[in-house]
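The instructor's notes for this session suggest beginning with a concrete chain rather than abstract definitions. Hand out the sequence below and ask the class to guess, before any prediction is shown, which regions might be ordered.
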Amino acid sequence: MIDLPTESLRWCMGFLLVLARVGAVLVQLPGLGEAVAPPMAKIAVALAMTLLLLPVLEPHIPPLPDAGLGFAAMIAAEAFAGLWFGWLARVLTQTLTVAMQYVALFLGLSSVLQPDAELGPQTSALARMAEMAIPLLVLSTGLYRIALSAMVEFYTLAPPGSVLPPADGAAAAVAAVARSLVLAMRLASPFLVASVVWNVLAGLLSRLVPRLQIYFAAMPGQILGGLYLLAMLSGGVLSVWHDAVSKALRAVPTGL
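After discussion, reveal the predicted structure:
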């Protein structure tokens, strides 16, 4: 016969384990885990996903520990795995913000010598705009579905109650950071080339006309030309970002 109290405890333990990881993921997950999102909406999404995943993951839930300290350690391991996964997803999506910071630097809109009281000494308006646009892009283009599917697949590598291998987790984190920086530079590469060409032309002009105040003559053209180039290439930049982030999110569960 089935021991009903034991079975009930097992379901309760499984619910708490799944909720710990799902809740930790939603704290960091782009789009759903933003600070401006209503806390009640986050709680509702976490509870709904836990209820949906629990029947599937119940056979993989480990036996009940003998002491409460062991169960607390399992909860901590689940929370750490969720935070790790959510952090990886956020690092991959934040490449757009880093790319826009590069673009602002190449356009002359970001300088450590010109601090901004609202955005910080090295934060540009373009980077802030990209940071605000990322949740909208994640929710409107369906990237959140890819992230949630990857979170479910992540259970195949780290079942409930298991501990994420530190070496594998660190290697995956380093690879994700390297991939995000490379993608950010790819997105900003047209503006890098344009900035180099413009500065070379400005240097030649300063040689030809030594009395010309080259900074005041070249900077307005650099800013206006860069903004025009950004307007022309913004669609392509967002398309490349979306494709690269979607592929990276799908590879997160198998990247360990």
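Then share the key points. The two ends are 41 Å apart (CA to CA). The chain has a mean pLDDT of 81.
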